[in-house]
Amino acid sequence: MSAKIRLYVDQPLGQGQSVELTREQARYLFGVMRLSVGGTVALFNGEDGEWLAEVAEAGKRGGVLSCMEQIKPLQLPPDLWLLFAPIKKARTDFIVEKATEMGAARILPVQTEFTNSERIRQDRLQAHAVEAAEQCGGTYVPEVADLQRLERVLDTWPEGRNLMFCDEAEVGSALRLAANEKGQPWAILIGPEGGFSNKERARLNSLPYAHVASLGPRILRADTAAVAALTMWQQALGDWS
Ligand code: SAH
């Protein structure tokens, strides 16, 4: 038996487990998708893999699903973070959606000196990550952190994590990511529309764990740069092979 609808739920999943639906989930499953008692849904919660569940109760404002069998084990992405400076709303949404599909484990919006936007709606961005995971078949949802200053993130940088620092000023310095370094924790850093300040660049270039990377001779928009960098990293060190 298979289910066409995939739904993220913030509840434990397991054999025979009942899952209470929120009003919004009930509206989606029974109102929009026209599911009724006996219908099936695939559920995941980011921890317990994917489960086939059957509708046990369907109401206007709620409902209950019952887990039947695990159909996919939990598949964790590689230990890769994406740090990016938020840009216009639609492009920021795009970055979160693409980073989720591309297999980033954690998404960290960072405020740099030339960052255009001072605020983000963390809850909205997290919802975008959930939606992207639902549609791409992932069993994991990356956490979207709150906006933090880049300086502060670097001050508290975890030991042993490499940083791929994408700098448009470094044309020609292609980063060679060697496959024998597979398994190490990494992060990718993408700057804002205004690029990095000289002070930021100086600090980033002095960090022993930072590896400067060029994404070619053309200046990419931050959203394009994020997808390009994720592709490059996944191809060399990630879970594509
Ligand atoms: N304002 C800058 C461009 C910033 S592009 C300028 O006009 O020079 C936004 C971000 O995308 C950059 O900070 C960088 O992280 C990344 N980026 C864009 N093109 C790149 C390239 N060719 N190589 C490396 N990083 C790039």
Report on this model:
- It is a single chain.
- Helix content is 29%, strand content 24%.
- The chain is of the alpha/beta class and 241 residues long.
- The protein has two domains: 6-72, Ribosomal Protein L25, Chain P (Beta Barrel), CATH 2.40.240; 80-237, Alpha/beta knot (3-Layer(aba) Sandwich), CATH 3.40.1280.10.
- Strands 6, 7, 8, 9, 10, 11 and 12 form a seven-stranded parallel beta sheet that branches. It has a five-stranded mixed beta sheet with strand order 1-3-4-5-2.
- The radius of gyration is 20 Å and the shape is elongated.
- The relative contact order is 0.15.
- The site of S-adenosyl-L-homocysteine has 17 residues, from helix 6.
Summarize the model shown:
The chain is α/β, with parallel strands linked by helices and 241 residues long. The protein is 29% helix and 24% strand.
The helix/strand class is: alpha/beta
CATH T-level fold name of the largest domain: Alpha/beta knot
Tell me what the CATH architecture of the largest domain is: 3-Layer(aba) Sandwich
- Average of the residue pLDDT scores: 94
The profile of the biggest β sheet is: 7 strands, parallel
- CATH homology group of the largest domain: SPOUT methyltransferase, trefoil knot domain
Low-pLDDT windows of residues: none
Counting DSSP E segments of at least 2 residues, the number of strands comes to: 12
At the first level of CATH, what is the class of the largest domain? Alpha Beta
Shape: elongated
| Ligands bound, unique | S-adenosyl-L-homocysteine
Number of helices: 6
Q: Give me the strand/helix succession.
A: EEHEEEEHEHEEHEEHEH
